[in-house]
Amino acid sequence: VLVVNYDPQGKNTEHVPVTFTNLTSQTFSIQESFLNGKSTTVTVATTGAELRHEILMPANSAAMLRLTPQ
Predict the structure, then answer these.
(1) Strand (E) positions, 1-70?
(2) How far apart are CA 70 and CA 23, in angstroms?
(3) The pLDDT value given to residue 25
(4) Cβ atoms within 10 A of the Cβ of 22, count?
(5) Quick one: pLDDT at residue 53?
(6) How far is CA 43 from the centre of its chain?
(7) CA-CA distance, 22 to 6, in Å (whole number)?
(8) How far apart are the first and last CA of the chain?
């Protein structure tokens, strides 16, 4: 999933909610890879069909999210 926070004034950082649906109950890793080179990975477990994740997006940034079953 590609996530972008475009702000013409370059001022606003946003908490962007991302919801993955139609999932099986299991553990997943979510990798956030920003175009500026920053990358983080978190491991999460879900017992339902949805997984909600928030990503902190600085102004004028873009990131790829990769959801991988474990």
Answers:
(1) 2-5, 14-20, 26-34, 39-46, 51-57, 61-69
(2) 13
(3) 87
(4) 6
(5) 94
(6) 12
(7) 29
(8) 18
